[in-house]
Amino acid sequence: MDGVQEEAIHHTALKLADEIKHLSIYKSFYSDVQKLVSSPNVEKENFKQTLQQAMKEKGLDTKLRNTVFHWVRTQSKHCRLDPLTSLSKASAQWEKRIHKSLNSMCTDLETSLAKVRLQSEQDILTEKWSELSTYNLDLSKYRPVYAPKDFLEVLLTLSGYVPFTRDDEPKWEFAHLPLKVNKIDQLRKLFPEWSSGEPLLGVNPYMPSTVPGFSTLEAERISLGERVVALGYAPVVQEYLKKGSPQCLRAKLWSNVLGSDIKAPQVQYFNRLKKNVLEVDLMVDKLIFKDVQLTASNDDQYFVFEDLLYQVMLCFSRDVEVMQLLKGNIGNPPVVTIKGKQTSPESLTAFPPSGIIPFHGFTMYATPFCYLYDDPVQLYYTFRAFYVRYWHRLHYISTHPQGIVSLCLLYERLLEANEPLLWVHFRNININPIRVVFKWLMRAFSGHLPPDQLLLLWDAILGYDCLEILPLLALAILSFRKENIFQVNTLQNVDAVLADLSTISVIPLLQLALMKP
Amino acid sequence: MNQEAKKITNNLYGRVNAPVVERCRVNFCTDLEKSVLMSNFERRGWNQVGPDDEWNFYWASTQTCRNLFSVESGYRMNDNQMINHFPNHYELSRKDLLVKNIKRYRKELEREGNPLAEKAEVALHGGQIVTRYVHLDFVPVTFVLPADYNMFVEEYRKSPQSTWIMKPCGKSQGTGIFLINKLSKLKKWSREAKTPFHPQLTKESYVISRYIDNPLLIGGKKFDLRLYVLVTSFRPLKAYLFQLGFCRFCTVKYDTSVTELDNMYVHLTNVSVQKHGGDYNNIHGGKMTVQNLKLYLEGTKGRAVTDKLFAAMQWLIVHSLKAVSSVMANDRHCFECYGYDIIIDNQLKPWLVEVNASPSLTSTTVNDRILKYKLIDNIISVVLPPDGVPDVRWNKLPNTEALGNFDLLIDEELLEKDEPSGSHSRGAKSKYK
Ligand SMILES: Nc1ncnc2c1ncn2[C@@H]1O[C@H](COP(=O)(O)OP(=O)(O)O)[C@@H](O)[C@H]1O
Ligand SMILES: [Mg+2]
């Protein structure tokens, strides 16, 4: 047994040693080590030990460990080939529908998917880059390609592909899908900090500390957090985030755990994305403008960040690395010619280069970061890392245990098992309970919860590195409001009961959901 | 812990907190039939009466209040009557008097040798060295025109490149305000204003203040804060700060160039100004909550500077109130809710712009309505004794539950007694001794 394990570790180490050479940090890291080797601190006689010591002192050790941490996290255990062909079929069809709809929108509006931007337009765009809200565009004819409810309709048809449906089960249940999800007892084990009722940030601002020398839990967490930031070791940061981050340290902690710190190459790359936005006019740009306008611009929590969001979302659409990082997870974007460019390899582009078509509310994946970063570049990379690690799973069809289908199923199972009366009530009034929470799940509650609560929720997503928290919170909110839900019997009225989440405290609710009665 | 969490969730999720409805007969009278007022009175089951009837609680205009207290009216209030203004609120709310009182307050402290009145030399933007109060430098340098014209010119010459803002003393909502960057412009204005610079003849006086030309910008836009402060007594001073203030944003990017000097959408944050702009959004009304401002500042600038800013704002409020406490007619029947206008500069220093005695109760958005409804609800529960019937013999020590979203800023009576903290107070206290 041990032998097998050792072999596996050896195998991984070889692979790592090989792949690390292709990572962007390799060159500078290697030259740093070389410099160190020639320093007097490293002795020839005692090479290994003195080098390791010197690397520790210079912080190279942490850098290497973090690199390994981030590399390991990208090596998904999940088999890329979807075992459920029905799902991959549905996913391909859905993708086709989206592209068809984009194409017909282009035809209707007599525009093209990609064209060279006129010089005059480029000049205006360049000038207005930092205040794109004043960039005049007629968007009245543009519509979001799809909204959460359209996507839900697609998901709801999935169960139809499964041949064996028992008669007494409603057709809409995700339970028909042969996917395994956790039960509440398993979740209790996954989130021990919540289920055991440990003192956590986000419960009560005046909660006293149990550690001598600190008046409040918050003061204690800040002090510990400052040491965690100074250490800068990603796995420790991740552990720390489970109990919630103070807002003043969050920006650093998040970029550390996601490996999204920025250096000169990242800034250069961001500027290249910007250049591409300025030079090439993609039809998605209009959709992005429209989405920011429909969401952030009208939201009292985010309107002040409107201009920042235009920049970030436009650049995101041009980011080929996103597509590369998500290969196999997000389908294949079509390649189109850029109208007005001389025929050459350069005149072709994936549409869009990132491969991601925004839906109505897509911007909401980025908005909360505005409370952490005012520099667009730093905001960009943390948002992008979050998207690549988590958010894409919420709007692509897959069997991944963190994918939207599994999350819907988890929600359904949790509701049925833990709130049976509510489950029956939904059945009696003939409402599919997923309908009342789907938009929360798909947007990871962004735009629904106030930002301070949302950030606590996202701390937990990073800390536990999982999205199952989303259906769990949906369940907790429903339990909390159940008396009001029992009073109503139309979808519209249930939605009204659940519309205002401004008074929700996320962490206490999650605790209540997991603590044994 | 389990219990603890439950208790907290229960508290947190009460929507607009609706305590047991007080069914006792309180007769109210109001000059203002705003829905945030009326719905609060209704929910409490109060009975509306006219100004000549036996009212217990009067939500009056400042004018009505002054009339009631005037000698000519001959009106005498009984112990079960309360009114929402102090008769000479203008000591705080008139732009010229506010500055006059603060200047006097500082001088007094200086004469006493109080360390609060410490002075030090500071460098202005232009590099000039001037002497300023270290702890009490929270209003922009201001002069009353025409009275202080010569003093203004002297100050102007110290840094001729700075911008000044002219505001009529008796107006509000941004009316009559303009910016000045040259003395010649002021002279031209005074000629055109016809009334020569003779104090006796001038109908309208103005204040001229140093323009804060380096405001903190978010998303490139200028904003100011509207904070609500409830005073239930000036001697001893008892004041409360409402947690739910908001920021009011300009709709146009901030721009200090001379060509934009007359563009009020760039410089004035009043909603009454901004709502006429083409970019005004009536869903959010350009308003962001103070809690979100704090979240943003903590996230992007850090905890220490954010805490310092918020402490400095409380400091500023307390001392502006202390500055007028000796001149206010401290009538037991009165309480007042002030709207503080504060600008934060890019060094995160707060500046007091003005104090309104009748802050707008018009709701521009849904959230605005919720906020103002809570404000009125909380004011009523702080100023009334626990049994819910106005009674000026009450000791004006509301318990913690009655505070709602108010935090105690200062209660000199409590400070004097030096009571152990926790029984009545919440928030900062001994800081302002
Ligand atoms: N000294 C100043 N520096 C910068 N801006 C100012 C200054 N004074 C006033 N303002 C701006 O003008 C607005 C209106 O001024 P204020 O004194 O509040 O008069 P009003 O009674 O008309 O509201 C303020 O809300 C603020 O945006
Ligand atoms: Mg004002």
From TrEMBL, chain A:
It comes from the Eukaryota. Residues 244-465 form the Rab-GAP TBC domain. Pfam families: RabGAP-TBC (PF00566). PANTHER family: TBC1 DOMAIN FAMILY MEMBER 19 (PTHR16110). This is Rab-GAP TBC domain-containing protein. It comes from Arctia plantaginis.
TrEMBL record, chain B:
It catalyses: (L-glutamyl)(n)-gamma-L-glutamyl-L-glutamyl-[protein] + L-glutamate + ATP = (L-glutamyl)(n+1)-gamma-L-glutamyl-L-glutamyl-[protein] + ADP + phosphate + H(+). InterPro entries: TTL/TTLL_fam (IPR004344). GO terms for biological process: microtubule cytoskeleton organization. It is found in: Cytoplasm, Cytoskeleton, Cilium basal body. Keywords: ATP-binding, Cell projection, Cilium, Cytoplasm, Cytoskeleton, Ligase, Microtubule, Nucleotide-binding. Its main location: cytoplasm. It comes from the Eukaryota. GO terms for cellular component: ciliary basal body; microtubule. GO terms for molecular function: ATP binding; tubulin binding; tubulin-glutamic acid ligase activity. Part of the neuronal tubulin polyglutamylase complex which contains TPGS1, TPGS2, TTLL1, LRRC49 and NICN1. Interacts with PCM1, CSTPP1 and LRRC49. Belongs to the tubulin polyglutamylase family. This is Polyglutamylase complex subunit TTLL1.
